[in-house]
Write a structure and sequence with these properties.
The protein is α/β, with parallel strands linked by helices and 300 residues long. It has helices at 7-18, 23-30, 34-44, 52-64, 74-85, 90-101, 107-119, 133-139, 159-162, 205-216, 237-244, 260-269, 284-296; strands spanning 68-69, 103-104, 169-176, 183-189, 195-200, 225-228, 247-250. Strands 5-4-3-6-7 form a five-stranded mixed sheet, sandwiched between helices. A two-stranded parallel ribbon has the order 1-2.
Length: 300
């Protein structure tokens, strides 16, 4: 079965191909089958080779011709309830809706429907094959193995954001100084590729949250969401959300391409702040000048 690729993964494939990496190597790096990479390249390569934006546009066009995502209507709820009462799993229901009704409804949406029903004293959850530990694990913890409280997975981010159709959604990370001495918090807007950054002497979560708030506060009307990696320095993301009135998402562990714009820009910033450089007591003005140079370069 062909695995759907995210836009960031296509970006990563394009960069890796330019580096001369094999499809097997790209697949290993991405945690994907090399056959998935091979099929992606075959389907989306144009006359000038595999180009990220062209590949993404082709994928979107194909997707639009397929079944469409829908909201959970009363009619759909009734149909789902009927299948659950017949002891179907959410995955089976999702598959049948797509196959028979041309309705694209993710099984996680059905799980959320079951949870909502349970909170209202409903009994639908009793039809799940595993009502206990795994069901509670899916919903029952504010923390998770990343140690980040109330972490929202990138899967919850809407497709329009994933496809870079909406302005105001940012990616965040840090670049670290030599010997883990100091850091620079970096943020990149996904559509216009604007970069902002702020130096910190420590990666403590409260300091990083302060830096993010300080650098984005003047343009908070341009901030709808921030997607982070899973570093504990971002554990205070809810503080940022409160200050900037935005949402936060987290990429999957070891999936750096899900923040491809930020990862690429961090590499460019290393031209001015190499890995051999201690970043303690770096002046904001020094960072601002370097970032301004990056923002002034022509975009590919």
């Amino acid at each position: 079965m062909y695995a759907q690729l995210a836009s960031e993964e296509r970006h990563y494939i394009a960069i890796s191909l330019k580096k001369g990496e094999s499809m097997r190597q790209i697949g290993r790096d991405m945690g994907r089958s090399h056959t998935t990479i091979s099929r992606e390249i075959a389907r989306n390569t144009g006359k000038k080779g595999y180009r990220y934006q062209q590949a993404q546009n082709k994928a979107i066009a194909r997707h639009k011709s397929k079944s469409k995502a829908v909201k959970m209507t009363a009619q759909l709820q009734s149909k789902i309830t009927l299948h659950l009462e017949q002891d179907w799993s959410p995955e089976q229901i999702s598959g049948r809706l797509k196959e028979v009704d041309n309705v694209c409804l993710h099984h996680e949406t059905i799980y959320r429907f079951i949870l909502s029903d349970k909170k209202q004293s409903g009994q639908l959850y009793k039809h799940l094959r595993q009502q206990g530990k795994k069901y509670r694990k899916r919903y029952g913890y504010a923390n998770n193995r990343t140690g980040i409280p109330n972490r929202v997975d990138i899967d919850e981010r809407c497709n329009k954001v994933n496809n870079r159709e909406i302005f105001g959604h940012w990616e965040a990370d840090t670049i670290i100084g030599k010997g883990h001495q100091g850091a620079i918090v970096t943020l990149d807007e996904r559509v216009c590729k604007l970069r902002v950054a702020y130096p910190v002497n420590t990666k403590q979560a409260n300091k990083v949250a302060q830096a993010i708030t300080q650098v984005l506060q003047p343009i908070k009307t341009w901030v709808e969401s921030i997607t982070y990696d899973n570093g504990k320095e971002f554990a205070k993301h809810e503080t940022v959300n409160s200050q900037l009135e935005c949402n936060s998402y987290f990429a999957k562990p070891y999936h750096s391409w899900e923040r491809g714009q930020n990862e690429n820009a961090n590499g460019l910033l290393r031209q001015y702040f190499p890995k051999s450089m201690c970043l303690v007591d770096i002046a904001y003005e020094e960072v601002r000048i370097a970032v301004h140079k990056l923002n002034s370069r022509p975009r590919k």
